[in-house]
Amino acid sequence: MKILNLVILGPSGAGKGTQAERVSKRYGIYRISTGELLREGIKEETDLGKKAKEYVRKGILVPDPLMLELIKKRLGKLKNGFLLDGFPRTLPQGEGLEEILKEARIGLSGVLSLKVGEETLIRRLSHRRICSRCGTPFNLATSPSREEGKCDRCGGSLIQREDDREEIVIRRLRVYQEKTSPLEEYYRRKNLLYPMEGEGGIREVEERMERVIQKILEGYGKEKGDSGRRNCS
Ligand code: AMP
């Protein structure tokens, strides 16, 4: 069996969560979404949830030490075969992840970076609704639930995330530019970055992603002399 350990990067609304879920099902790999873990913690009022609540509500990043602690606990339990969605989000998180993986003798297979224009991001986020019970995302314009306001999966009621309000969305996009986008260069230098077009329908992006993952599995571009500058669109 080939090993597949992935990171998915992209601003809010790029489709990370939706695509990550599909990839994890298709390849039978474990998905870790730090945003979902934080929202669960906030709902259940865990220690982490209490500490993270205000940051998440305001659309700013939870401090790196808290996030590294969370990811260390999660990754400590698993071996190969995972997909990180929403982590790392800063250079120190990227470096911390490298340390954690090194200790566990696990390597990253690739970092998928979804590229989507700001106008599309804002439109997608303003239409996004999530299930208040199981967290499944829907989009009022492109992938609505069968019954209005109700989750197809568990029947829970659909709500708008507090941090999907427009003023918070704009802040989250700025935070992505400032804090997260430097990770692209970080992974490009390590020859792990796979930038890909994230505009278009869910199925279209999924097919694109599928092709990129096949390339990763085939060890595409790993030969000597590769510049690490890929463009998979
Ligand atoms: P997401 O669901 O990935 O959009 O994350 C929602 C919110 O959770 C973000 O706006 C941050 O406040 C917080 N968050 C999620 N992942 C991280 C991370 N790796 N580092 C810091 N904050 C995070």
Topology, element by element:
Layout: E1 5-9, H1 16-27, E2 30-33, H2 34-43, H3 47-58, H4 64-76, E3 82-85, H5 91-103, E4 110-115, H6 118-127, E5 128-131, E6 137-139, E7 158-159, H7 166-180, H8 182-189, E8 193-197, H9 202-217
Helix pairs in contact: 1-9, 2-3, 4-5, 6-7
The structure holds adenosine monophosphate.
Adenosine monophosphate (AMP) binds next to α2 and α3.
Structure description:
The protein has 233 residues and is α/β, with parallel strands linked by helices. It has a domain at 5-118 and 170-217: Rossmann fold (3-Layer(aba) Sandwich), CATH 3.40.50. It has nine helices and eight strands. The two termini are 26 Å apart. Bound molecules: adenosine monophosphate. Residues 12, 34-35, 38, 55-56, 59-62, 67, 86-87, 89, 93, 163, 172 line the site of adenosine monophosphate.
